Amino acid sequence: MTDDLQLLDLVGDDLAGYLVHLEKSYAEDMSRLGGAPLEEARERAKRSMLELFPDGQPAEGNQLWRAQDGDGRAVGILWLARRDDGAGEPYAWIYDIEVEPDRRGQGWGRKLMVEAERISREWGLTRLRLNVFGDNEVARSLYRSQGFREQAVVMGKDL
Asked: Model-level pTM?
């Protein structure tokens, strides 16, 4: 673990609050970037949440942490999963790296990425993957600086 970053299991009220935030923001992103009507995006987000968090708990293979600095101040969230798509070796999937708004631009995202790599190696995995929305240039730049390369690009045009 890095010197000033601590990862604590995300549980209880912290997990419940995160899930409410996650479902809402995921639906908004799907609507804004995917073009789905907001109500349809909300339904899709709800279905995803039920699959990924049955009974309000992470599905098997998923782990979520609350990140804090050495003083115990909130930094953000890290959500990793072990995945196997049957097309090669299993891999770690970053579902979410989220830095608190007032902590952005201070290197915390980079530190969370380093932790994601460390944990993935501890799990015995040799690949780390993620998805990022196309308009999130800050995140895309961070991921590229950490050695990620784009493997597919989905493009769209509103008519």
From this structure: 0.87
